[in-house]
Amino acid sequence: MQPNFKSFFLGGFECSTHKRADGIRLDLVGLTGHDVQAARDYALLAQHGLMAARDGVRWHLIEARRGAYDWSSLIPQLTAARANGVQVIWDLFHYGWPNGVDPWSASMVDRFAAFAAACAQQIAAEADGPPWFCAVNEISFLSWAGGDMGGMNPFGRGRGAELKRQLTRMAIAAIRAIRAVVPNARFITAEPLINILPQSAQDHHVRAAALYMESQFEAVDMLTGRKSPELGGSEDCLDVCGLNVYYNNQWIDHGQTMHLGDVRFQPLREQLARVYDRYHKPLLIAETGTEGVFRAAWLHYIADEAAFTRAAGIPLEGVCLYPILSHRGWDDQRHCPNGLFDGYTPDADRTAYQPLADELARQQALFARHGTPAPASI
Question: Which domain of life is it from (predicted)?
Fold first, then answer.
């Protein structure tokens, strides 16, 4: 089968645009300088063999006034990607929206759908093949952080289920609107992949953990019409099931995080198999990475698990290093050394973190040589 993406390893540009609880809007494309260094950034991806990427449009800049689209913030990214032959999966909604929009309203859904269709036409004009999109990034996370915990926009508490339905409605409407104008458009999800163990063997703890685990699939179930069909979801809303995998994605319910090396830590290959058994769609690790000196070791683990997964016949189509550029923390402005490239301000030089660059090159060689390389432990 022809792969969907131009390279198995992808690079992802952090593109969050949400507002924090203090009212400050973040714009990670701007804060990392990706907007002004897009040509250099995409050239670096190509130099490191990353011929596919995730990147994002910034709705709050493009449509500051309803129906009036200014594409000047997007054009440098589009031009840079095309010039370097890098295929891009475009995030249309990465946590943020224009000022003055009521995020709980039906008009939000309609406005986003119209925006998404207009974006798709701009992007499709620059794409060599079918354009790829993630309509709404991390529905599950935003529903929790912004709908239940009040930590980011829209600052709701106890409204996570309502927000999840609203975000899913937006995604479905956007997909329908895009396919009406760009019929060959393709879509991924980017949802957290988690594993939660019960506090104890008591029945009520086991049930609570099981319900929590099941909730990670709710957004994709709604998107594909398996749950809440009144929202309009269907199987054709999803081409590749994208999953976000981080070091802290496994924990004891209401307890401690389980890290790699803990005997209770579930291997990624088992988690991926569970998702594939549920949806029977090609898979993508849409985000993965960690900070500091652990970056190379984490990629080694992820690549080994990817090889096991592919050897089992599961169509895992890629691993996206995310973020590809280190950046400052959302809330505390600390330097987060989590990218392949450091240099996290608009005027900073990009420098590769060599241990991660070396591990990436090693893994690329293995996958190129064997197609589905045997993990080191076999």
Answer: Bacteria
